Structure to design on (201 residues):
């Protein structure tokens, strides 16, 4: 029997950290679905056509270097508005979700579109300022040039594109447990997520 945990939310809300921790705690496989869109975005920056790039995507592409840059993130959110790109990525995600040992998938539309039947749905969020602050620190710490105002504008631009698009916009599933991490430490957010999963098992 498969057991699926769907974790959605905006950029830099702590979704990735929470997802990895939940997967490790319960011994589940983990898929960061943002990597699919990033891999397509990267290929588009290299000159490929978005839908063809999405259809040609292979699991190995998710390990490609250079997927975590701000330029690729913006390219990802631009290809993510294209319905045929999203459609081309559905089967891969659903197959992953059905893994025998159970899986955690994190993204924007996992609980609403990809796995509406998931046993647990979490919506991990935080204020735009908090998220920009975290992204800004990460960029600084990894040696990137960054200005807070620019990072905040970036976060807001991606939020707008992700939540206003016609196909699979970012929004919580009706039955999602909402976790606002604005005033939480990482450990608190993780504990909150683990207890939500525990109560569904
Ligand atoms: O989560 P991450 O920042 O890596 O995602 C990059 C972009 O990919 C997002 O801004 C969003 O536009 C898109 N995405 C999506 N659906 C998902 C995961 C990511 O549209 N399930």
């Amino acid at each position: 029997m498969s057991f699926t945990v769907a974790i959605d939310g905006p950029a830099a809300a702590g979704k990735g950290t929470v997802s990895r921790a939940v997967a490790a705690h319960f011994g589940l496989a983990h898929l960061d679905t943002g990597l699919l869109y990033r891999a397509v975005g990267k290929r588009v920056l290299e000159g490929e056509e978005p839908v063809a790039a999405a259809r040609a995507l292979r699991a190995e592409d998710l390990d490609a270097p250079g997927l975590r840059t701000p330029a690729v993130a913006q390219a990802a959110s631009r290809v993510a508005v294209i319905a045929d790109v999203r459609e081309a990525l559905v089967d891969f995600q659903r197959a992953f979700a059905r893994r025998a040992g159970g899986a955690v998938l994190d993204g924007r539309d996992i609980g609403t579109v990809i796995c509406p039947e998931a046993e647990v749905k979490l919506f991990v969020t935080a204020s735009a300022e908090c998220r920009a602050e975290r992204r800004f620190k990460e960029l600084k710490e990894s040696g990137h040039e960054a200005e807070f105002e620019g990072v905040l504008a970036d976060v807001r631009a991606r939020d707008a594109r992700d939540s206003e698009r016609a196909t699979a916009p970012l929004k919580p599933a009706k039955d999602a447990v909402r976790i606002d991490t604005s005033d939480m430490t990482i450990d608190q957010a993780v504990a909150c997520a683990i207890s939500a999963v525990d109560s569904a098992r």
Observations:
- Residues 11, 33-34, 37-38, 73, 76-77, 80, 107-109, 158, 162 surround cytidine-5'-monophosphate (CB under 6 Å).
- Strands lie at 4-8, 29-32, 103-107, 120-125, 177-180.
- Residues 148-164 form the longest helix (17 residues).
- The first strand starts at residue 4 and ends at 8.
